[in-house]
Specification:
Elements lengths: L1 E9 L1 E2 L5 H16 L1 H13 L3 E8 L2 E3 L11 H8 L3 E3 H10 L8 H4 L7 E10 L6 E13 L3 E8 L6 H11 L12 E10 L8 E4 L9 E2 L2 E4 L18 E4 L4 E2 L7 E3 L13 E3 L4 E4 L2
Antiparallel strand pairs: 1-8, 1-9, 2-7, 3-8, 4-5, 6-7, 10-14, 10-17, 11-14, 12-13, 15-16
Helix pairs in contact: 1-2, 1-6
């Protein structure tokens, strides 16, 4: 599949960038730079004929490991090492979607432990008194933080021209992605763009998704219940949480190509009269042979 890649230099974040959250930031970028009428037109396009499909972000040169029938390995250490593989290089990914998990036994990610790892740590900060600008005694916060400190890549399958994407991502990175942006997390920089070909299996029997989507039909899924927060100025709404839902994570494999689109996750009460909140759940599919 021919795609455009946006390489992002990431620092510390509350969570690695996912397609739904990135799309939500893009929606707010349209709202704040072009106005409410432009946002409604932009949303209407995505509800019926999306101008582009967006993947989640992955370490540069790597894709999520497809969830395929596991290979039986008698050696305990090798079995544990296989279980821990989360990302595969484009070359290994290409072999796995054509040959299955047996291709992992010869992969550098397993034999040389070359797969990238995501570091999760705790970050502690103090409360600041607004009146004095000094630290408040006895007020400490500890958060879970991802220390990525490497280049990650978001893939975009363009269906129509969307020249604003690079500038939009640059501005989103300046103000911060995801939770705790107000305390300095989530900053990133667009360090390059590239057009490239993502691997796909010829004559596929299944499809792997590079973005979260709704589970449907047969397949091999990793599921999560998602409790999202509203963004933009709705983050201060009476109910700042979206309606929760169950979704299949990146790397999930489907027998039939999934067809999910935008999901209505408007909370009760809505953040504003007449407003509907949408979650981006279009799958970013690559063909797989199982």
């Amino acid at each position: 599949m021919r795609v455009k890649a946006f390489h992002l230099a990431l620092g510390s974040l509350s969570a690695p960038p996912t397609a739904p959250t990135l799309w939500g930031h893009l929606a707010w970028w349209v709202r704040y730079t072009q106005g409410e009428a432009a946002l409604k037109e932009w949303l209407e396009a995505f509800r019926h004929d999306p101008p582009f499909l967006l993947s989640s972000a992955f370490p540069q040169g790597y894709l999520p490991r497809p969830l395929l029938p596991p290979i039986q390995v008698p050696d305990t250490l090798q079995r544990k090492a296989l279980k821990g593989l989360r990302y595969l290089s484009l070359e290994t990914f290409g072999r796995v979607i054509r040959e299955g998990e047996k291709a992992l036994l010869e992969a550098p990610e397993l034999k040389e432990q070359k797969a990238p790892k995501v570091t999760l740590a705790a970050q502690t900060r103090v409360g600041i008194a607004r009146a004095t600008g000094t630290a408040q005694e006895g007020i400490l916060f500890t958060h879970r933080v991802y220390w990525l400190n490497q280049t990650w890549t978001v893939y975009v399958q363009l269906r129509r021209e969307a020249a604003y994407l690079e500038e939009a991502l640059r501005q989103i990175g300046t103000f911060g992605y995801g939770g705790m942006a107000s305390v300095g997390l989530g900053r990133f920089e667009v360090v390059g763009t590239q057009e490239l070909e993502l691997p796909e299996a010829p004559n596929p029997t299944h499809y792997v998704t590079l973005s979260p989507t709704l589970p449907k039909g047969e397949g091999y899924w990793a599921l999560e219940t998602y409790w999202g927060r509203l963004g933009g100025h709705y983050a201060q709404a009476e109910t700042p949480f979206k309606r929760p839902y169950l979704r299949a994570k990146e790397g999930s494999v489907f027998r039939e190509k999934p067809t999910a689109g935008l999901l209505d996750v408007t909370p009760e009460p809505a953040p504003e009269a007449g407003v509907r909140v949408w979650e981006y759940l279009y799958p970013f599919c690559l063909g797989v042979r199982v």
